[in-house]
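ok trying this again, last paste got cut off
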Amino acid sequence: MVRDDVTIALNGAAMIGNNVLRVMSDGMAGLAHLNLRFIDWLALMLLPLTAEGEWLTRHGDIWLVNADGSTGNKAATY
């Protein structure tokens, strides 16, 4: 899609071989893909069921209220 957008913007510039426009277009497409993967990962961290590590601890600090009135997670007891 990026190659098509560059071709249209430059009135049909040819992208033959590894010219500068093609390499730059592929680089921009790769960066866009990484941004979308990061946004997808952030969407998973928004829900406690799919959160991991520090994100899950943060959810616990915000939403958990223990029986003794403290907030957040606490160590398991017997």
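PB: full thing came through this time. The helical segments are 2-9, 20-45, 54-63.
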